[in-house]
Specification:
The protein is an alpha/beta fold and 330 residues long. The chain contains twelve helices and ten strands. GO terms for molecular function: oxidoreductase activity, acting on the CH-OH group of donors, NAD or NADP as acceptor.
Length: 330
């Protein structure tokens, strides 16, 4: 029986991956950081033969031993903040070092198959590409460009480090899954940052819709791709953008209003001049300013063709998110 080692196993995406793995008959060993996360996962999967390893991505201790006996590394763990840090290295170093730490441990444990959760942010900001031209898997974000935020740089450099590692260790086969903003139904109340955006829109905490794109994918599709990639020959050595659609924030707000007229989602778009003005004083607005005048659209066509499916529509993923947020708030 194939055993999969899943890092960051208590995350929004990872919980769906665990469910997909169990449904497909895989054995799983999950890395977590606390007893609380173990209790959380045991509550979700009470009948599963789920093994645990207590590990810290910032420390070397325990990683190689934890992966002994596993056949596949599924590395999902990476920090995802809502706010831009003052020092970009606060995100970059843990993301890069953690990825390399996991991959080195996998090599030492004899693992030859790695699935890495990257992101579309590692794709859509290539400096020498026309800013309004959509991207695909051939594009790479220019990590040191002035319009690239810390999280975007961290995911780009972490994925680059993974590909460099397998280039030096050709016995390991890598696939990266690069989701857009991940929506859909959470498995419990501790959901991800994308759903926090939905919550903020619904509660009126974002009074004006930013004049920006948002690339959508449903978490169920992301999980399916991770698990299907394990044995799919056409997925080996490839990166895949997991993207259903690209929407404007104002369109997202309108969908929420249509679904529930009582929601406080914004009805007007913020003017560009206001974003630029606020960016002079607010760190969060500086990150938004970096996306003005450029599209974050990324094609998901390669994934649909290779995996043989159609992405869940963005509206379905959004409403599933909103319904979950509403139920957990009530």
């Amino acid at each position: 029986m194939t055993k999969v080692f899943v890092t960051g196993a208590s995350g929004f995406i990872a919980k769906h991956i665990l469910r997909e793995l169990f449904e497909k008959g895989y054995d799983v060993r999950a890395s977590i950081r606390s007893e609380a996360r173990k209790v959380e996962l045991e509550a979700l999967f009470p009948d599963a033969a789920l093994e645990f390893a207590y590990l810290d991505l910032s420390k070397d201790e325990g990683w190689e031993d934890a992966m002994q006996g596993c056949d596949v590394l599924m590395h999902t763990a990476s920090p995802f903040p809502l706010a831009e840090p003052k020092d970009p290295q606060e995100l970059i170093r843990p993301a890069v070092d953690g990825t390399l730490r996991a991959m080195k441990a996998a090599k030492s444990a004899g693992i030859k198959r790695v699935i890495l959760t990257s992101s579309c942010v590692a794709i859509y900001k290539q400096a020498d590409k026309p800013p309004m031209q959509p991207s695909d898997e051939t594009n790479w974000t220019t990590a040191d460009a002035p319009f690239v935020g810390a999280y975007e740089a961290s995911k780009t450099l972490a994925e680059r480090a993974a590909w460099d590692f397998v280039a030096d260790n050709p016995d390991i086969t890598l696939t990266t899954i690069n989701p857009g903003a991940v929506f859909g139904p959470p498995m419990d109340a501790r959901y991800g940052a994308s759903l926090e955006i939905v919550e903020q829109l619904m509660e009126g905490k974002i009074p004006l819709a930013p004049p920006l794109d948002l690339i959508f994918v449903d978490v169920r599709d992301v999980a399916m791709m991770h698990v299907a990639a394990i044995d799919l020959e056409a997925a080996k050595g490839e990166r895949f953008a997991a993207v259903a659609e690209t929407l404007q924030f104002i369109d997202i707000a309108r969908m929420l209003k249509q679904w529930d007229p009582s929601t406080k989602a914004p009805t007007r778009k913020a003017p560009v001049w206001l974003i630029k003005l606020l960016a002079l004083f607010m760190a969060d607005m500086k990150a938004i300013r970096g996306n003005l005048g450029r599209t974050t659209a990324v094609s998901g066509a390669k994934a649909e063709k290779t995996f043989g499916f159609k992405f869940i529509p963005a509206r379905d993923a959004l409403i599933a998110s909103a319904e979950a947020v509403k139920s957990y708030r009530s």
